[in-house]
Amino acid sequence: MIARRALALGLSALAALLAACSSSPKPTPTPLEPLQAKIAGRQVWRQSLGTPVAGLSVAVLGDRFLLASARGQLTSLDIGTGEVRSRLEIGAPLSAGVGSDGRHAAVVTQDNELVVSDSERVVWRTRLNSRVVTAPLVAGERVFVQAIDRSLWAFDAFDGRLLWSTPRSGEALSLQQPGVLLAYRNTLLAGVGPRLTAIDPISGALRGQMTIAAPRGTNEVERLADLVAPPARLGETVCVRAFQSAVGCVNAERGSVLWTRQQGGHQGVAMDAEFVFGSDASDRITAWRRSSGDVAWSSDRLRHRGLSAPLSLGSTVVFGDAEGWLHLLSRDRGETLLRLPTDGSAIVAPLVRSGLTVLAVTRAGNVFAFRPE
């Protein structure tokens, strides 16, 4: 029996546990169909990052992408050309990706040290009492940090003063996977177990909770339903995934749940004005109508290909896979429109965009920028 105590459970550990309970071989990835491209697109530049930090997130800052390597280097890349604008050595291996407001950037080391820098130097450091794998959020001259036990800290971005903190969630298990942490106007939104919590960023006081999933199962592993990154936001609507449980959308202004739908899966979601996109544990892709949660379409053509979280891009939705391909699908029908290669290794970070430039980071540590045309 699993002890009832706070325990970080990584995806690799969960996979090993599930594998031990089953002798079934790993499913064979669905072969890629021959494709006659229906839209144009090309690689516009490529850079080397080095080994990416586990759970890497990429910050989009005006005309720059900001990324962190596992060994502790922050790299700023020009969005148009891929040219290195700046590099900063943190001096220690990292456990979480980078968050930034354009002035301050924040990372967390494997020794549980929060490190905050400006564009040229480290300005302060402070020790945390829990492991962190979620990229810090830098907003409103504050740095917000979420630990794997879903406790939260808020620090002054300029001098590192602790402003407030919250206790650990009390959940029996928590994922060693980036969680949900984002700003909505003057509210901090954070995933705590299967709930999206609304918090006063000034005082840390709880403003409300919105439940995305009702975990069911015979043990703590089966009931594990932490909200996982990346979330999707458009206006007042925020949509999230609860690990292996459900996808749901809330109205962040009213603090109310709009809809939830049961679906297994461990990657976050994307959204546009009409649809919410996500893939389940077998990489079956579903598009739900944003207003109602009704299924608009689903597709099995990329099953078992190790899909990344999706990215909404104009008339398309984009997924990366474990072989380094980017798949651009029609947003309204799921038809494959274009397929673009990287270096053959898995896409390991959520895809991001600036305008029509899409950034993909591979396990081999290469950074690719593409531009559909």
From TrEMBL:
Annotated keywords: Cell outer membrane, Lipoprotein, Membrane, Palmitate, Signal
Organism (species): Sphaerotilus sulfidivorans
Family listed: Belongs to the BamB family.
PANTHER family noted in UniProt: CELL SURFACE PROTEIN (PTHR34512), OUTER MEMBRANE PROTEIN ASSEMBLY FACTOR BAMB (PTHR34512:SF30)
Subunit note: Part of the Bam complex.
SUPFAM superfamilies for this protein: Quinoprotein alcohol dehydrogenase-like
Major location (coarse): membrane
Membrane topology: Lipid-anchor
Gene3D superfamilies reported in the protein's UniProt record: YVTN repeat-like/Quinoprotein amine dehydrogenase (2.130.10.10)
Keyword Ribosomal protein: no
Protein name (database record): Outer membrane protein assembly factor BamB
Signal peptide: 1-19
Protein encoded by which gene: bamB
Pyrrolo-quinoline quinone repeat domain mapped to chain residues: 71-298
Function, as annotated: Part of the outer membrane protein assembly complex, which is involved in assembly and insertion of beta-barrel proteins into the outer membrane.
Subcellular localization(s) per the UniProt record: Cell outer membrane
InterPro entries: BamB, PQQ_b-propeller_rpt, PQQ_rpt_dom, Quinoprotein_ADH-like_sf, WD40/YVTN_repeat-like_dom_sf
Highest rank taxon of the organism: Bacteria
Pfam families: PQQ_2
